[in-house]
Fold this protein.
Amino acid sequence: MVFKSKKGDIAGNALVVANVDRFNMVKNKLSDIKLVNDFMGYYTYTGFYENKRLTLSWSGIGNTSLALDTLELYKLGAKNIIRFGSTASINKNIKPGSYVMPISYSHNNGGLFNEEIKDNLSISLSADYDLLKKFDLNLKDYEHYITDAFTTDSQKVRTNEFIDKLNKLGIDNLDMEGSALYLNSKLYNFKALSVLTVYSNLITGESLVVYVILCKYKPPCYQ
């Protein structure tokens, strides 16, 4: 248990964010905001964004932390959970500053996935198609891509050899939390999607400064 919230505190639509600066940026855009959890540092607020009730939750960094956070949100009433984060591109055509929405995630075996699934089988970690279509339309004025993504638990594995291998398998971008979100959505039957800002391209060496990542691009919203 990482939340001390009660039913009704959490909106049906939830946004999870790991970067503290991005979290505060989104929080400042909410109206009628109420702190509904601060236990164990999982700060969570419910308010309104563009006249729609929305819960914003700090998810922590890494798969395990995000898995805890999103499970609590689901238990308390969240039906649609969006991860608003950042990612590194390994596709030379996907430039820093664009958005990506992974339609699927791959990951290394072991750890969280073996413990949650328990059986020696593979679950297709895919986005909710209705959410994907909706956000594809919402982002029509921005450069954005629907991608196949890979989650790594450590940035140390991101060697040139590893990146080249993933690139040949059709992987477009790397992050550190997305596969846990999609796993939980399958295990607990809620809708999920990652909407990510590309902050760097590991193939071309291009990258964005922090200010541009945080301030130039508005947070995704529910329509």
Remarks:
- The chain has a mean pLDDT of 89.
- The chain has one domain: 13-215.
- The radius of gyration is 17 Å.
- The CA atoms of residues 148 and 170 lie 7 Å apart.
